[in-house]
Each structure stands twice: as structure tokens, then as C-alpha cells.
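C-alpha cells please, single chain.
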Amino acid sequence: MLKLKTVALSLLLAVAASASLAAESIVVLDVQAAILNSDKAQDRLKAMREEKEFKANLKEVEKLQEEHNELVAKLKKDSAVMNQEQLQAQTQKISEKRSDIEHVYRKLKAAEQKLVQEVVQELGPKLQEVVNKMIKDDNIGMILDAKATLHVTNAYNITAKVTDKINQAK
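Here you go.
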């Protein structure tokens, strides 16, 4: 009889625990995407991409890529009639061009990453406000990092909703 009461009590506690868990929801959030998809972040990225220096670097990458492609095409076309020295010289030119492309590309990426960090720092407090309000209003019990989840349906992903609230909270 005591065992039956213990089992019944355990079952009752399990049902109560699952009911309380159901009251709080588990959601997924990509913090960086929520911030970077905001209007303010998009405006700042667009402005950076319109800057003279950024455009010049972008044009340089395109020019270097064209030159690289021409060198590769020439090597493919003429490699059968080239001697070893000519092959080495052409291969060296291709390698140098690739290094130049990578250097300018890294400059572009560094500028973009710097801006992203600035925007994340700037909008971080606003994101925290929005998320704290959503936790209370939507009775959220747990927020998981979207990048750490293997699978999540859109119903549990609040990233777009957070971005919308950041945009509204100007």
C-alpha cells in the first residue's frame, strides 16, 4: 500500500512538473543575425559598401581576379609548348596574383568585421531589453543559441521577431 502511494505521488509530481514546463516555452535565437538584420545594421553596412575606399578595394579584387583568370587560361592554353622555366614563371605569376587577391579580400573582410562588431556592441543593450521583455511577455523559459542547435522549426526560432522588435524600438 505504501509503495502504491509512493508511485502515485511520483506520477502526480511528474505530471505537475511537465505541466509547469509546458507553461514556459523553449525558443532559439541567433543573436548576431537578429542584430545584423536590423534596419540600423543594414543601413550601416550599406553605407560602408558605398564608401570610396571600400569600392576601390572591391574593384581591385575584381581586376586582380580577371588578371588571375587570364593567366590561368594562358597557362592552360600554352602549357604544352612552354619549357620548364616558362611554366614556373607563369605558375609564379598566378600564385602572386592569388596572394594579391587574398590580401585585398582580407582588407575588405576586416573592415566588414570591424563594422559588425561595432553594430553588435551598439545594439547589444537594445537586444537585451527586447529579449528581457519577450521573456516576460511570452513566458519564455529557455533560449538556446541557434548556432548550437542541430534542428529547429521556424515556430521556435524568434530571431526575426527579435529583429522586428529592435527595429520598432528606435
